[in-house]
Amino acid sequence: MAVPITFDQPPNTANLQGRSVLVTGAASGIGLACATKIAESGAYVTISDLQEQAGHELVHDLSSKGYKVQFVVCDVTSYQAQVEMFQKAVEFGNGKIDIVIPSAGIVAEKNLFDMVPEEAPTLHSPSPPEPGFSGANVNLHAVYNTCYLAMHYFRLRRDGADTFKPNIVFVASLAGYVGFPSSSTYSLSKFGIRGLFYGIRDRASRSVPPVRINLVAPWYVDTAMTRKPEFVQSEAGFLLQVMGCAPMERVVDAVVRFSAEESLHGRVAGIFPHVNEDLGDDIVGGYGGIVLQKHMTIVTKEVVKFMAEAEMRGDFLSVFSQYNLLRI
Ligand SMILES: NC(=O)c1ccc[n+]([C@@H]2O[C@H](COP(=O)([O-])OP(=O)(O)OC[C@H]3O[C@@H](n4cnc5c(N)ncnc54)[C@H](O)[C@@H]3O)[C@@H](O)[C@H]2O)c1
């Protein structure tokens, strides 16, 4: 088994100097925090997002600090827009692309059970409207395309003396390991990223040039996504109330570590509520099972304690009705 990654020392970012880096969904949240940290390390960073104004403001702000950044507006659900995004990133990064971080993501559709019409069907009632799939279009299909384009552009001619392995850091989620009851497309898309990761990681190290692929699986983090009222009021919001968020710095630490450290390939960092840990997500590590079980047991214990305390205080019903948890 590979030696577990340790997170007690900050990552060595020396390798990022002068690298050409593309971060999608980088006008906000995790993408923004990672892009900023990588720009601070001296890389050429292409910040891409569909939020045009926020993207331009951000780049203006970072450029005024001397960082090498550009903004490219891109809706990642358009393949053609992604092609243009990559071409601009390559141009900005002196003819190459070294690191790709697909962070664009949304929570869109709800749980399928919450989307079926309230009224039960009869034999003659009209069929229900299509449920929608936009969560998976952004979080999975678009990431698949980003990954494909990365493989393509990683093969641009590189300086022969430069042995740095181009790499992808997937921003998945713990929802790709334990399910996410508040959105079926979120859950399936994050499991899908994990499937994509498993499917390409062995081939990646044998490709020319060799490519490194790693994945971060964060617990909830305080971003625009988790601040939305519909998120706060969902079952996910309940877990947030009990456990709190994992700090952004730990997500950035893992993403930057994977981007920069040449020894890391095929690995997963679990960003748990209280700590980062190597998920051991391979055949020897039981595909993350043992580490995941340890941390989810902690979550379960804290949730049970929270519920018992609410019951003793007599506000069980008022606390749980707001998260739709009483229907279970
Ligand atoms: N916040 C969390 O708790 C959490 C936990 C685990 C994983 N994640 C993942 O982290 C990633 C970033 O999420 P975040 O929490 O920073 O949310 P966020 O909303 O702050 O950032 C997401 C960014 O993606 C952009 N985006 C959305 N759709 C897009 C599209 N079609 N094309 C281009 N850009 C698009 C948004 O404009 C936004 O700037 C997502 O993939 C999310 O699933 C988040």
Automatic annotation (TrEMBL):
| Signal peptide limits | none
Q: Which domain of life is it from?
A: Eukaryota
Q: Name one GO cellular component term.
A: cytoplasm
Entry-linked Gene3D superfamilies: NAD(P)-binding Rossmann-like Domain
| Sections of the chain in a coiled coil | none
Assigned keywords, A-Z: Oxidoreductase
**InterPro entries associated with the record:** NAD(P)-bd_dom_sf, SDR_fam
Q: Name one GO molecular function term.
A: oxidoreductase activity, acting on the CH-OH group of donors, NAD or NADP as acceptor
Record keywords: Oxidoreductase included? yes
Q: Which family does it belong to?
A: Belongs to the short-chain dehydrogenases/reductases (SDR) family.
Q: Please give the name of this protein.
A: NAD(P)-binding protein
- Tell me what organism the protein belongs to: Cucurbitaria berberidis CBS 394.84
